[in-house]
Amino acid sequence: MIHISESAAKQIQHLQKESSDPASFLRVKVVAGGCSGMSYKLDFDTAMGEKDRSFEENGTKVVVDTKSLLYIAGMTLNFDGGLNGRGFVFSNPNAAKTCGCGSSFGV
């Protein structure tokens, strides 16, 4: 399962209204790269794959492919929008190491 904080859900919904199809959902994916070995990728999508898993929390639907889910199961997606805010923040219990920017991790 992927958890979506209330602040992240509000930001995702705001971005959906501004720039994408209203029927879209947030796709979270893990890709190779970044200074720690793997990076998070967020995109809006409208097509579910056969092996995708979907989660809904705080009125926001998130879809993850099964391969990525192995690395991010139990993760919480938050949004920090304060004066020194970093944007989307990933709290991944599976990450053994992370980089300074918080968007790259290793297991």
Task: Give the strand order, joined by hyphens, for the main sheet.
Answer: 4-5-2-3-9-8
Distance between the termini: 18 Å
* The number of domains: 1
Class from secondary-structure proportions: alpha+beta
**CATH class category name:** Mainly Beta
Share in helix: 10-25%
The CATH architecture would be: Sandwich
Describe the sheet with the most strands: 6 strands, mixed
- Any idea of the CATH topology? Hypothetical Protein Aq_1857, Chain: A
| Oligomerization | single chain
The DSSP helix count reads 2
Mean pLDDT: 85
What is the β-strand count? 9
Order of helices and strands: EHEEEEHEEEE
Any idea what the CATH superfamily is called?
HesB-like domain
- Coarse morphology: globular
**How much strand content do the residues show?**
35-45%
Computed Rg:
13 Å
Low-confidence segments, ≥5 residues, pLDDT <50?
none
Describe the structure.
The chain is of the alpha+beta class. The protein has a single domain, classed as HesB-like domain (Hypothetical Protein Aq_1857, Chain: A). Helix content is about 20%, strand content about 40%. The protein is built from two helices and nine strands. The strands form two sheets. A six-stranded mixed beta sheet has the order 4-5-2-3-9-8. Strands 1-6-7 form a three-stranded mixed beta sheet. The longest helix is centred in the N-terminal third of the chain and has 14 residues, at about 5-20. It is globular and about 35 Å long.
Give a short summary of the structure.
This protein is α+β, with helices and mostly antiparallel strands and 107 residues long. It has two helices and nine strands; from the N terminus they run βαββββαββββ.
